[in-house]
Write a structure and sequence with these properties.
With 158 residues, the protein is an all-alpha fold. It is built from six helices and no strands.
Length: 158
Amino acid sequence: MPSAQVRSQNLERNALNSKKYYFALKIALNLLYCRFIASKEKQVTRRAAALGSDTVAALAVFGAQVKASRAAKKLTASELGARAGVSPRTVTAIERGNPNSTLGNAIEVALAAGVDLFGVSGQTALEELAGTYRQTATLLPQRIRKPRTASKETDLDF
């Protein structure tokens, strides 16, 4: 059996090691948190700069339509989210015009709320509209190329 002095030294060593581990872990977590915050700030700046005023206005109108339709049907954000298969936070983000929601989620929420998309209502009307646009797309050229401009090397006058 170890003596009391050896046990005391072992306890001090373990305490010192646990303090070192604690401080190393704390520094690592702080570093990770700072990197995370910095990356989020860059993302927000990049996204905000990329959106034009027309896009922001369109998102606001879309969100207002969803909110008005939800209110008219007397649904909570939780109920609408359950119908659309998204969280209540996603519903409120779409209603606020947040550009970070995916297009699929935004359309699911709008359809679950009963918003008429593209001026038509119902799945069959949307499928007919999609078919019309597909037919129009087949009539258009497959590729769009810019006309070639004369290069400086071939534009020599003798």
